[in-house]
Write a structure and sequence with these properties.
With 174 residues, this protein is α+β, with helices and mostly antiparallel strands. It is 20% helix and 33% strand. The protein contains 3 helices and 7 strands. It starts with 7 loop residues before the first strand and ends with a strand. Residues 7-172 form the N-acetyltransferase domain.
């Protein structure tokens, strides 16, 4: 696994919008996307329902001595507006730049998402992942997420039905 200098995770800021939007477009893949490939004119990355405070950003330098830049992000939100499940947070988006893959950025973001969920009072975190996204499923499983349900044929992508896998884990106190 290659090492990246200066990996740090921080809350997103409005000034990150352009870099996050570009990262989101550059990482679009049929492996994880259920929406069509983005095409111009592009909408805003941050918008109502997707404010900066929902995102954590990983920064790293591509090379020793280089300036840190966005290497990835994770979005962590309440799954519903209901008070009855306010103790849960959900990962609803994770992306890692191509140049940063294989260096532990995704793992760092998953751990940061769990820490942030715990900080916001959650005792449980969930996510949904497409069944054919084996790399993501393996990462989540290695971080303590278990399959809690499968929605068979939930999406029709590239001419075939794809299962949606629901995963979750308890958030033990830090």
């Amino acid at each position: 696994m290659p090492a990246l200098p200066l990996i740090a995770v921080r809350p997103a800021a409005p000034a990150d919008e352009a870099e996050l939007a570009e990262l989101d477009r550059s990482t679009w893949s049929t492996l994880h996307a259920v929406l069509p490939r983005p095409t111009p004119p592009y909408g805003p990355f941050f918008e109502e329902g997707h404010p900066p405070e929902d995102f954590l950003v990983a920064e790293a330098a591509e090379a020793e001595g280089g300036a840190p830049r966005v290497a990835g992000y994770v979005r962590v939100v309440p799954p519903t507006p209901l008070a009855s499940n306010a103790h849960v947070r959900q990962i609803r988006g994770l992306a890692v730049a191509g140049w940063a893959r294989g260096a532990g950025v995704g793992r760092l973001l998953v751990r940061a998402a769990c820490d942030e969920a715990r900080r916001r009072g959650a005792n449980r975190i969930t996510l949904r992942v497409l069944a054919h996204n084996e790399p993501a499923r393996a990462l989540y499983a290695s971080e303590g997420f278990a399959v809690e349900g499968v929605l068979p044929g939930e999406f029709f992508l590239n001419g075939r039905y794809v299962d949606d896998v629901c995963m979750g884990r308890s958030l033990d106190p830090a």
